């Protein structure tokens, strides 16, 4: 697996519900332009990696890409045709829990047109609706 935590605090994680808006990680901090989530959801490590590959191909070495999310949550499932009981299933994949307002990717060192095109290509890979955002001017 590409992206997964080195260790976790608890062996089993519960499903939970994604509710509310993001209060942390909801502004562009590292680059000039970002991709912000508009919906709650879970984004798998493979999807995050696919977005990284598309962005790096689109930018072609110019500029810097920042990934602001990390897959901390394990998603499990028991095999089909298994009887009830026998405990929780094996980890199928790792996912990042995303709330509305979370900045997923950031890009810097490129023009706005290239950043807009690159992040549009990345957003096509993601299972949540996203929008293009820019860095707020500092006071």
| Biggest sheet character | 4 strands, antiparallel
Distance between the termini: 43 Å
Mean pLDDT: 92
| Cα-based radius of gyration, to the nearest Å | 17 Å
Number of helices: 2
Q: In terms of quaternary structure, what is this?
A: single chain
Please report the total strand number as a whole number.
7
Shape: elongated
What is the chain-wise order of helices and strands? EEHEEEEHE
Name the poorly predicted regions.
Answer: none
What fraction strand?
25-35%
Give the proportion of residues in helices.
10-25%
Structural notes for this entry:
By secondary structure, the protein is an alpha+beta fold. It is 21% helix and 27% strand. It has two helices and seven strands, in the order E-E-H-E-E-E-E-H-E. The strands form two sheets. A four-stranded antiparallel β-sheet has the order 3-6-1-7, covered by helices on one side. A three-stranded antiparallel β-sheet has the order 2-5-4. It is elongated and about 55 Å long. The termini are far apart. The model has no long low-confidence stretch (mean pLDDT 92).
């Amino acid at each position: 697996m590409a992206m997964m935590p080195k260790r976790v605090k608890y062996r089993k994680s519960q499903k939970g519900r994604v509710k509310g808006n993001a209060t942390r990680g909801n502004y562009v901090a590292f680059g000039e332009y970002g991709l912000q989530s508009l919906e709650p959801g879970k984004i798998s490590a493979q999807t995050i990696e696919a977005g990284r590959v598309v962005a790096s191909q689109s930018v072609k070495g110019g500029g810097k890409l920042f990934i602001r999310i990390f897959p901390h949550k394990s998603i499990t499932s028991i095999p089909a045709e298994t009887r009830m009981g026998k405990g929780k299933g094996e980890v199928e994949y790792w996912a990042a829990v995303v709330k509305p307002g979370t900045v997923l990717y950031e890009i810097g060192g490129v023009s706005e047109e290239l950043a807009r095109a690159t992040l549009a290509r990345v957003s096509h890979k993601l299972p949540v609706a996203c929008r293009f955002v820019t860095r707020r001017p500092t006071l």
